[in-house]
Design goal:
By secondary structure, the chain is mostly helical. It has one domain (14-170): Ferritin, core subunit, four-helix bundle (Ferritin, Up-down Bundle). Helices cover 78% and strands 0% of the residues. The protein has helices spanning 14-42, 46-72, 83-98, 102-133, 137-170. Helix 2 packs antiparallel against helix 5 (137-170). The radius of gyration is 18 Å and the shape is elongated. 34% of the residues are buried.
């Protein structure tokens, strides 16, 4: 998947667009890696904590594999955050601070992570197709694998939300923290 022209010259081909997205993915996964560390500590439900720990490990694996793709593509390792994800991470932090109960906080955290997760599913699915279109089957397979990982986490979070987190958040037992 070697690129004759770097994206620093602009995006003029599908390959350049893919390279740009790959650089963005590293920033996205890096930012999520930092936030997940904090969110694992904030989660109260043990099953939610466990899924977040699993997701955190997956994000770290994605970062390692992205580094390999970036090196193979002769791209610069970009840790500049993606504005969309940065805003979503900040919004999650702001919402959690507003939660008056740990059960509501867990529901908020779970839903916010799923929103981020859904965007990542879309981005990785698109990158897999772009890679396939330019004949980069190995990279396409990697991004398809990332997409499937994200879908797996989404499924685990959805099941947990439906069976445990959301029912508890409907009528939480309020305990004043002050």
């Amino acid at each position: 998947m070697k690129n004759e022209t770097t994206t620093s010259n602009g995006i003029s081909t599908l390959h350049h667009l893919l390279d740009y997205d790959i650089q963005q993915f590293s920033g996205i996964e890096n930012a999520l890696n930092v936030s997940l560390k904090k969110w694992i500590r904030l989660a109260n439900d043990l099953k939610l904590k466990s899924i977040l720990q699993q997701y955190h490990g997956m994000v770290r694996d994605h970062l390692t594999q992205l580094q390999e793709v970036i090196k193979a593509e002769n791209l610069k390792w970009v840790t500049v955050g993606n504005r969309v994800i940065k805003a979503m991470l900040q919004q999650t932090e702001d919402k959690i601070k507003q939660c008056k109960d740990y059960q509501i906080s867990d529901a908020c955290l779970l839903a916010s992570i799923q929103q981020i997760n859904h965007i990542k599913i879309s981005w990785y699915g698109t990158a897999a197709e772009f890679s396939k279109e330019i004949g980069a089957e190995k990279t396409s397979s990697l991004f398809h694998f990332f997409e499937l990982n994200e879908k797996k986490i989404d499924h685990l979070l959805s099941r947990l939300a439906k069976k445990e987190i959301n029912p508890k958040a409907i009528a939480p037992i309020f305990i004043d923290k002050s």
